[in-house]
Amino acid sequence: MYVAVKGGEKAIDEAHALLAERRRGEQSLAELTVEQIEQQLSLSVSRVMTEGSCYDPSLAALAIKQAQGDLVEAIFLLRAYRTTLPRLATTEPIDTANMHIKRRISATFKDLPGGQILGPTYDYTHRLLDFKLMVAEQDTSDKGLSAELEILNEQMDSETSEAVIPRVMDLLNQEGLIEKEQPIDDIPVDDITREAIKLPADRDVRLQNLARGDEGFLLALGYATQRGYGHTHPFAGEIRLGDVEVEITPPELGFSICIGEIEVTECEMVNQFKGSKDKPPQFTRGYGLTFGYSERKAMAMALVDRALRAEELGEPVKSAAQDPEFVLMHSDNVEASGFVQHLKLPHYVDFQSELELIRKLRANDSADNKETTE
Amino acid sequence: MSDPDYNFAYLDEQTKRMIRRSLLKAVAIPGYQVPFGSREMPMPYGWGTGGIQLTASLIGLDDTLKVIDQGSDDTTNAVSIRKFFRRTTGVATTEKTTEATLIQTRHRIPETPLQKGQILIYQVPIPDPLSFLEPRETEARKMHALSEYGIMHTKLYEDIAHYGAILHTYDYPVMVNDRYVMRPSPIPKFDNPKMDNMHALQVFGAGREKRIYAVPPYTKVKSLDFEDHPFEVQRWENSCALCGADNTFLDEIVVDDHGERLFACADSDYCQTRQAEQGGQR
Amino acid sequence: MQAAFQDSVHDSQQCFRHILKAMSEPGTKVTLPSIDVELPIANATLSILLTLVDQSTSLWLDDDVRQRALLDYLDFHVGAVVTRNTQDASFAVVTDIGAIPDLTLFSVGTEEQPHGNCTLIIETSFQGKLSRLTGPGIENDVELALGLPEPLLDQRQALSVLAPCGIDMILVDGNDVIALPRTTQIEVY
Question: A275 vs A143, which has greater pLDDT?
């Protein structure tokens, strides 16, 4: 007699054991430490913190280890942890003009106050596999930084930590060529981690959503705008990477205190705008901000942010990147990954119903055909 | 000497042949975008992979290569590309426009007029001038086939009607040999007149979009305009603060926090040559 | 098997630059470096094939030269796909100009893909009546003898209504080469 499949619990336990084994890999090799991931896979850590909406490099590293390097899975793990944390305070807005700069470039001016600071970038590397990295360095303990690099680091520290490097946008602002962005203190900022997104969404909600949004999704949309599907005539006004202070104002004190520093990447796009009935021709802005060093994401975010302002600026809305509902509802990779992959779950009850229906329709169909041929 | 681990100029010979065949077609059909089997290069798309593939297919031991970005030899990407070709070919490089046989450029045409026999290689991000009006390539290709450029003229005329001027300041569309509307790549429209009847061969490579196009020497290149709104180039009130030139494209450089500006030639070789000449006269 | 280029990388690069110069400056005569082989085609024809043709192109040869020795040589050094159908050919070699097939038998490309045409390599001698060439690549005009029979020139002229479709020609005389892309206008005196 046929016996239906049972024993799901045991199967799941076995699957988890296999997963743990696969995660560990070859036993004779040393196990990866969370510290190694945090230090040596720092760009992965940045992405997981950004899309996981939680600034904690070691937890992000742990998530990456646990997810076998699957970053979307790691983001999910960090989000699931984050949601359990109590909210103790709300920080003041971070001031990126006072950033301790590690990298700062502008594509719109050849030179400008504070200079172009290339920093640690892949931009001008030639993408040739470096086979020297196949072999671990023998002894790194006494080698340390090269003398040259140390001098460079010291110079950077002394130059940039003291001097405030003005933002390109502020320079353009002096001439009134770029739209002003006024802080709106009296309108509370929505929090999409606490409440569902309400449409139409204002820019605060859109930016929060984009900051958490999937890098690949935003990259593709931003790319599409460049190819004509919602073009925004972008220039990378400024990209900066560095540490900013995070401050809170405890009510009992009445003034703000610094509670630590975080590393962020900021991108401000400058976009052509021809003017409309209500607004003079001027440059407009698209904005991107991420935790850690996530330049690609910050740039894509800024492109999509600007494209989503099409309606506000009176531009025709024709493409996906300009449609807030389309973008906001599909940008989150935890939501998207869950729903796409849920198709693996059993659906046989529904499928059974569909089977019935199709059989019935086919039966009717062939009956009809017989009648007409007769 | 070139790097022995890679073929001369990085690309394999079969790829070079494919690009060379495409380039000959491009020359034979001025302004027409020839599709080609663009390869992955060791630089990202957008960094000039189209231009780099063209240069790699053209360059030989007798060549002298100049690479500019924004008109300047010392911009980071120009430095990087020059270094790549030095490493993979060992060929001589120069900053002098007059000494170069091949000039790879991003966003500018040198101020010094080019000569017969020189080849100017443009890096192209988006090759099709119609793509902002009709992003679907299948549709745009039909319009090119029929020389049906109505939507382009309509768009430009709408600009004039609404704003009193055509709003393209760079990548300003041109008509080549009275047949194809072509994107000149994002050069400022200031440079457009230099393309017309140029003595040098102009070739354009779009790596990501997989297109090659060309303008032979002594070929008519006309910036699109209207009788009542003729094409005009940018003019500056300032002259170059370094060499005094009053007929070049100027970079605006912010010199302090108060927004003080300085203007200098974007073309670094042209500017330095003029400064050297003036120094010699004094 | 007889040898081909001594240094395939640099010799083909040099040849290509000469061919490119000829194609972008129609009427300009360029001279290709000679190769020391005994084959029934001109030196420059061989250099052009070695430079531009490979497994991914189809090649048509006229009856005069479609012989075992040449076919074996091309198979070994070029890997060309030799076709007997003119319409399929991306390159065609004509050594007997008196017996050249009607130009309309070769592919001229399509309106949407005008680059799908055949490039004809035609052996001739640059003698006889002077022609005046104008068009892209030519400063004002240039006068020279092409050695092309008038019926062929008439056929070529007839194709001009199909622009931007058409036939590109590379004329060969020994080591010398003159190119006539479809855009070149020819007037014979």
Answer: A275
Range of the domain at C148: 8-188
Query: Which tens digits make up the pLDDT trace of B31-53?
Result: 999 999 999 889 888 899 999 99
Tell me the C-alpha distance between C83 and C74, whole Å: 13
Q: Residues A77, A101: one domain?
A: no
Question: B45: burial class by Cβ within 10 Å (0-12, 13-18, 19+)?
Answer: middle
Segment 221-280 of chain B within 8 Å of chain C by CB = none
Residue C3 lies in a domain: no
Tokens of B59: 């360059």
Q: Are B68 and B108 in contact (CB under 8 A)?
A: yes
Condensed to tens digits (0 to 9), the pLDDT of residues A53-72 reads 999 999 999 999 999 999 99
* Element counts in chain A: helices (H) and strands (E): 13, 4
Please indicate, yes or no, if residue A111 is contained in any of the structural domains: yes
Kindly report the nearest CA distance between residue A325 and chain B, in angstroms.
Answer: 22
Query: Residue B1 — pLDDT band, cuts 50, 70, 90?
Result: low
C12 at B interface, C-beta within 8 A: yes
Give residue B64's pLDDT.
98
End-to-end CA, chain C? 45
The alpha carbon of B260 is separated from its chain's Cα centroid by a whole number of angstroms, namely: 30
Q: Is residue A8 part of a domain?
A: no
Domain co-membership, A64 together with A181: no
DSSP reduced 3-state for A373: helix
* Mean per-residue pLDDT, C111-118: 97
On the question of pLDDT at B54 being above 90, the answer is yes
Q: Which residues pair with C176 in a beta bridge?
A: C31, C173
- pLDDT value of position A357: 87
Answer yes or no: do A264 and A121 share one domain. yes
Give CATH for domain B13-223: 3.40.50.11310
Q: What 3-state class would DSSP assign to C37?
A: coil
- H/E run at residue A288: strand A284-291
Q: State the average pLDDT over residues A136-144.
A: 58
Instruction: Classify residue C36 by its DSSP letter.
Output: -
Contact B132 A229 (CB under 8 A): no
Question: Position of tokens 């024709």?
Answer: A318
For residue B231, the distance in angstroms to the closest alpha carbon of chain A comes to 19
Q: How far is CA C132 from CA B199, C135, C164, C180, in A?
A: 20, 10, 21, 12
Token pair listed for B42: 């060791």
Chains within contact range of chain C (3+ C-beta pairs < 8 Å): B
Give contacts of C23 with chain B, Cβ < 8 Å.
Answer: 24, 27-28
Q: Is B34 on the interface with C (CB under 8 A)?
A: yes
Q: How far is CA C150 from CA C95, C154, C160, C163, in A?
A: 17, 6, 16, 21
Query: Helix, strand, coil: what percent of chain A each, to 5?
Result: 45, 15, 40
pLDDT digits (tens, 9 = 90+) for B205-250: 999 999 999 999 999 999 999 999 999 998 888 999 999 999 999 9
For residues C101 and C151, the answer to whether their CB atoms sit within 8 Å is no
Phi and psi dihedrals of B215, rounded to 5?
A: -130, 115
Please check the confidence at residue A3 and state whether its pLDDT lies above 80.
Answer: no
The sign of the CA dihedral B169, B170, B171, B173 is positive
**Model ipTM value:** 0.97
Kindly list the catalytic residues of B.
31, 240, 243, 265, 271
Strand residues in chain B grouped as ranges (E): 34-35, 64-69, 92-93, 102-106, 119-123, 174-176, 180-182, 201-206, 211-215, 221-223, 250-254, 261-265
Confidence of residue A179 (pLDDT cuts 50, 70, 90): confident
Q: Which domain holds residue A64?
A: 14-83
The reply to whether C59 falls in a domain is: yes
| pLDDT value for A371 | 67
Roughly how many angstroms between the first and final C-alpha of chain A, as a whole number? Answer: 46
